[in-house]
Amino acid sequence: MLSNHSNQKMMIFLRVLIAALITIHGWARLFFAVPAFSGPADLGGAITDMGFPAGLALGWLITIVEAFGAPLFAWGRFIFPLGLFFTFIYTMSTIFYHAPHGWFSSGSGSDGCEYAVLLVGSLICVWSQYIPARIGESRLNFWRNA
Predict the structure, then answer these.
(1) pLDDT value for 99
(2) How confident is the chain (146 residues) per 10-residue block, as mean pLDDT?
(3) Closest CA relative to residue 19, chosen from 138, 110, 127, 140
(4) For position 48, what pLDDT does the model report?
(5) pLDDT given for residue 4 in this prediction
(6) pTM of the complete model
(7) With the CA atoms of 1, 23, 114 and 143 taken in that order, what torsion angle do they form, in degrees rounded to the nearest 10?
(8) How many CB atoms within 10 Å of residue 25?
(9) Which residues contact 78 (CB under 8 A, 6 or more apart)?
(10) What whole-number distance in Å separates Cα of residue 10 and Cα of residue 122?
(11) Residue partners of 15: CB distance under 8 A and separation at least 6
C-alpha cells in the first residue's frame, strides 16, 4: 500500500475511474447491447472465432466479472485478483482484437489499441500496489524499484 496520503488518494481516484469504465463496459454488454458485441453470447462467439475453447462460457464470465466485479474493485475489495483478471482480459483483447485495427481508437482510426494499452498500464499501476505479502516481496521487488 502507498505510504504517502496524497498518492493514496490519487491511486483511489484512478482505481475508481478504471472500475467505472469497466463496469459500464460490462453493463452495456449485459443489459443494453453494444454495437461490437450485442451480448455475452456474441462476445463468446467472437472468442471462439479467435480459436479459444469455451467461448460462450468465457463471454459470460468476462461480462459478469466486468459488470459485478469492477464495483468491488472500486470499493477496494479483491483488488489484486480482479486487477490480474482485468489485465489479462484486456491484454488479450488488445492482442487479438484491437491491435489488428491499428493504434488509434478515434480520429484517424477506430477500434485501435491506444486506449486498451492505457487501460492495461493503469490497471498494473493499481494492482501492483496491493500485491499480497504471501506472494513474496523478494520476487516482486522489480515492481517497487522500477
Answers:
(1) 84
(2) 76 96 92 72 91 94 96 96 97 90 76 88 94 66 57
(3) 127
(4) 94
(5) 79
(6) 0.83
(7) 20
(8) 18
(9) 69, 72
(10) 12
(11) 73, 74, 76, 79, 126
- What does the chain look like in DSSP terms, one character per residue? ---SHHHHHHHHHHHHHHHHHHHHHHHIIIII--SS-SSHHHHHHHHHHTT-SSHHHHHHHHHHIIIIIHHHHHHTSSHHHHHHHHHHHHHHHIIIIIGGG-S-SSSS-SS-SHHHHHHHHHHHHHHGGG--GGG-HHHHHHHHH-
**pLDDT single digits (tens) 58-71:** 999 999 999 999 99
Written as nine digits, the cell of 95 is 492482442
